[in-house]
Write the structure tokens for this entry.
Amino acid sequence: MDNNRKELTPTQIVIELDQYIIGQTEAKRAVAIALRNRWRRQQVAGVLKDEIMPNNIILIGPTGVGKTEISRRLAKLANAPFVKVEASKFTEIGYVGRDVESMIRDLADYAVNMVKMEKTAEVQAKAEALAEEKILDILIPPIKRANSQGEEVSEDEVNSEVYKNQKTREWMRVKLKAGELDDKLVEFDAASQTAVGMQVLGPLGLDDMGINIQEIMGNLMPKKKKKRKTTVSDARQIIAQEEAQKLIDMDAVQREAIERVENSGIVVIDEIDKVAGGGKGQGPDVSREGVQRDLLPIVEGTNVNTKYGVVKTDHVLFIASGAFHVSKPSDLIPELQGRFPIRVELKSLTEADFIQILTTPQNALLKQYSALLETEGVNLEFTKDGIKEVARIATEVNSQVENIGARRLHTILTTLLDDILFDVPDKIPAKKVKINAKAVKDKLDIIVKDRDLSKYIL
Ligand SMILES: Nc1ncnc2c1ncn2[C@@H]1O[C@H](COP(=O)(O)OP(=O)(O)OP(=O)(O)O)[C@@H](O)[C@H]1O
Ligand SMILES: [Mg+2]
């Protein structure tokens, strides 16, 4: 399977995750094993292969400690189709709201796009070459075997014309490649989008049956060619895109997408605790339990109809997550618990973690703000004690107001940098902005001290 190109070992997976997520070693290990087990399963021969079940996981932990982030990064690493859904958004079949099967349809959409993009990239060079020929055809129409009066022309004459034409064409090709013709206008036939301006509003639930009305209508409508006039550089792109579409076999794309969903799809179900029962010994109320019952077949393995065909969910990896403050995993209906055999707890983040989160991940917040200000020619620098102070305040506010984990860093930084972000470039001509502990205190202390104020601002 080619989406397993880069088959990472569990150790390598953890190393990759370490680039984005600080701490949470146990959770990283669990997802690494789950991912590797999928690949292992693919290697198992014979009937046993179908018997091996995915290692569905429940990530338990307070908000903002990296549960979703770990799953998201994992899917990226695995190059796997990925969707994230909120368990609390689903409703029992028959009630208003989304039914659980829609998550598999979303997964299939994602996979189709993913495969289509890969295939497009594969044929891109060829499509561009074809586009180039087409544009040359427009600029220098090939020689016709008859003159304008429709009389046959002598063989010699044609040959010399063809030769000249060929020469000019090569000369134009050089210019075209060098981009010298980019701004020249050309007129060409473009396939007009089918069904433009026509919104298909099917009766509710048609999508649920996996029927693609847009496509059916699109196929019924005659495909019209439309004259378009654009610059050469735009025309190249438009024509290359059209050629690429023609080179791709959509049936094959859909088949591969479905295979990919079935064998490597990842579904993250957030807020699973919200559909668990619990809370002072009462049983789960009917609708929550209903959602769990609806989830069950999907997690256990069922067939879901999608626009692209039937998807078997047996080997899709499900990663559920939740804070489980009120309810416990044991409040989930037993069958569902059985389908999530791996439970990992994520830790609350400490001040030391915050320092790391601010600075080390590839997408670290401070790197993000530096990059933003860099575009204005301003160099943003945090001193060591400045970073420590931000982390300290985040920890303090988390413990005093509400623990929202690493998300606290976002709110603190936006408040801290508010003035700078507003005043650059008008009022801060300086090329360098340095933020130390004192600057952080000056800006934030008053807010932190005032509980009411920090509730609103930080
Ligand atoms: N351990 C961590 N290392 C680096 N960044 C983190 C970590 N934990 C959280 N973050 C950052 O905090 C933000 C929120 O994290 P995430 O979405 O993973 O929270 P969560 O655990 O899923 O919370 P919730 O229960 O509210 O869904 C993200 O921007 C993420 O990058
Ligand atoms: Mg989350």
Q: What stands out?
A: Confidence is low (pLDDT under 50) at residues 194-205, 279-284. The chain has 17 helices and eleven strands. The two ends are 47 Å apart (CA to CA). Residues 118-255 form one domain.
